[in-house]
């Protein structure tokens, strides 16, 4: 029995393998969440310099390589490289008691939390879909949504370098009918983008303010491409409900300043993930309740 057969015919082994893979992916997502906004900022600064000072183009001092691969991970306090054995997801953090091996400064709990959450959500997807292409796509979408959630939480930014490729992937896999057919996928992408775009334009017309960013339109379009137009209302309602409850709670508890923007991307991502797994049941339950 080869590895693929073992994964297919042993659900326990498959879920275990997905859980371990999820932890490893979570470690990589920590890198993406921190580095991608920095990479984008450096690129914007470079473009601004070239636009404002074209005569100096090519004369800037060479900057060190900074991407998702290089440089190697380092302690943010002492800048010492983190050896592979100290970079094992969750386990290394526990063994080192949350401190750098060199300078003994505390390491943010955020890193193992993201790794753990990624592993848990990956296991849920594997348990729900089983060994299938739907599971493979669901895992990929889950990992992308985690990265988008945290980047938007940190920077109020939903990078096109994540949302647009995932939108095209959603349209592509609709050719094989894994979640929805191409008809539902294309309309879902259009409905997702235009629905929030319309809300944005209406809010701006009434108040003169921008209620959300264009990244939110693209994220909902991406989810519409993956899950079809039928899920767009479910995602909008779920995200709006959760966003309203959380926002009002934060303001009431004075954990958030009035007038300060609250990123909507995390709520869209959470609603999209819920719809991926249980969207059909939510629609069926709603229809059975309203049509009684």
Structure description:
By secondary structure, the chain is mainly α. The protein has 10 helices and no strands. It is globular and about 65 Å long.
Portion in beta strands = under 5%
N to C succession of SSEs: HHHHHHHHHH
Report the biggest beta sheet as strand number plus sense, adding barrel if it closes: none
Fraction in helix: 55-70%
- Mean pLDDT rating: 88
Per DSSP E runs of 2 or more residues, the count of β-strands stands at 0
Termini separation: 51 Å
Structural class estimated from helices and strands: mainly alpha
Gyration radius, in Å: 21 Å
CA-based shape: globular
Number of helices: 10
What would you call the quaternary organization? single chain
Low-confidence stretches: none
Layout: helices, strands, pairs:
Blueprint: H1 3-9, H2 11-52, H3 91-95, H4 110-129, H5 133-155, H6 160-173, H7 182-207, H8 214-227, H9 232-252, H10 265-290
Helix pairs in contact: 1-2, 2-4, 2-5, 4-5, 5-10, 6-7, 6-8, 7-8, 8-10, 9-10
Task: Provide a short characterization of the protein structure.
This protein is mainly alpha-helical and 292 residues long.
Please describe the structure with a list of short key phrases separated by commas or semicolons.
292 residues
